[in-house]
Amino acid sequence: METKIVIHIGLHKTGTTFLQTQVFPKILNINYQTKVDLTTKVIEGKINLFSDENLDGGSYRLFNTVEQRYTILENLHKLYPNAKIILCIRDKDQWLKSAYKQYVVAYKSCSFEEYKRRLDVRFTHYQVYINEIKKYFDAIYICNFEHLKKNPKKFVENICEFIGVQTPEFENKTVYKGITDGQVKFIRVFDTIFPSRVLHFILSIGIRIIRKDKTILQWKRRKE
Q1: Partners of 50 in the beta sheet?
Q2: Which of the two ends of the chain, N or C, has the fewest CB atoms closer than 10 A to its terminal CB?
Q3: What tens digit of pLDDT does each residue of 45-54 get?
């Protein structure tokens, strides 16, 4: 069997946790990893599936710019010039709302209007991004988060067909729900009363534990 490399590059907030916990690990006879860097191991004669939403350039983070995502693309091509690329996109307005909540939990609270004003809006220019991907890679599959919500079975089947594997048995469940509007308000009030990055970080960890965040679950598994 020839060596194949398939890379799922995000976007953030498009069902990545669902794929990374309910689908990809259950595919048989592949080399599956959740980080792509110089330590990532390619196994010859296997399908190598790498899934790392940070490859989209950290799109939801206010301190990142879209140039970072294009640098990542260039570097990916140098490492894996024949890779197949999976990109999931989402309705832009819904993506912005979800990205905002993720930022509030992970980094710092602010109003939604401030978030939109400070975010590099080019992160939402999907077609520009897709065109850039096509400059580097020939095999690209674009999927849509809304399709996952409407027909998860078909959504997963299409991705697996692109990868070249049989669709595994998977549980159709929301792995990590975004925080509620009420929780956003609580975080903003907390940060106003306690303007400390350390306390915000502690609060963030607490929220992640309560909501069974993927990062916390992975950390607990490593400890066990």
Answers
A1: 7, 33
A2: C
A3: 999 999 999 9
Q: What is the pTM of this model?
A: 0.89
Instruction: Give pairs for 92-101: CB < 8 Å, separation 24+.
Output: 92/124, 92/126, 94/145, 95/11, 95/13, 95/14, 95/124, 95/145, 96/124, 98/13, 98/178, 99/12, 99/13, 99/59, 99/60, 100/60, 101/178, 101/179, 101/184
Is 4-172 in CATH node 3.30.565.10? no
Q: The tokens of 77 are what? A: 């091509």
| Structural domain spans, the chain | 4-172
> What is the DSSP secondary-structure string of 36-54?
-STTPPPPTTSEEEEE-GG
Q: How many Å apart are CA 10 and CA 12, to the nearest integer?
A: 5
Chain centre to alpha carbon of residue 171 = 19
